[in-house]
Design goal:
Low-confidence stretches: none
Number of strands: 12
Helix content: under 10%
Bound molecules: 2-oxoglutaric acid
Largest sheet: 4 strands, antiparallel
Radius of gyration: 16 Å
Length: 145
């Protein structure tokens, strides 16, 4: 994904774990977040809860029976957002995200844009769970290196 947080109007991404949306069995996935510009608190950098990957998976986004999608909730306690730490980084930095790490980004309240590029990589030994909302067609299986 190319994520373009525009000056003054770039919106927030609420607190989530990437494994909610990219759930593999076994859970062997990493998020790679590349800063294409300096990212700080004012222009909407990432924030994460230190050691938050130990909380376990709180929800999954799955295919619903009969069509569509729904959230499957395992734990609906709120995130301890007071523990969030800003990940202020310079252009060119790579942030590696554990699939269970809770993270968010806030609105861009500055006149500076914040561009980022993200990629999620899945171990070749893993596959999407059967009810994951995303599925690959048989003609386009997950590929390994
Ligand atoms: O770049 C952002 O603002 C949010 C990115 C994010 O949460 C993600 O890639 O999972």
């Amino acid at each position: 994904m190319y994520i373009f947080k525009q000056p003054n109007i770039g919106g927030e991404v609420t607190c989530h774990q990437d494994a909610t949306f990219l759930y593999t069995e076994p859970l062997r996935m990493l998020g790679l977040w590349f800063a294409l510009e300096d990212a700080g608190v004012e222009n909407g950098c990432l924030w994460a809860i230190p050691s938050g990957h130990n909380f376990g998976l709180k929800s999954r986004f799955v295919r619903a029976e009969g069509g569509g999608t729904r959230f499957e909730i395992f734990d609906n306690t709120p995130w301890p957002e007071a523990k969030l730490q800003p990940l202020e980084v310079e252009k060119g930095t790579l942030i590696v995200l554990h699939p269970l790490l809770p993270h968010l980004s806030r609105e861009n309240t500055s006149p500076r844009s914040r561009h980022a590029y993200t990629l999620h990589i899945i171990d070749v030994s893993a596959h999407y769970a059967k009810d994951n909302w995303l599925q690959r067609s048989p003609e386009m299986p997950l590929r390994g290196f």
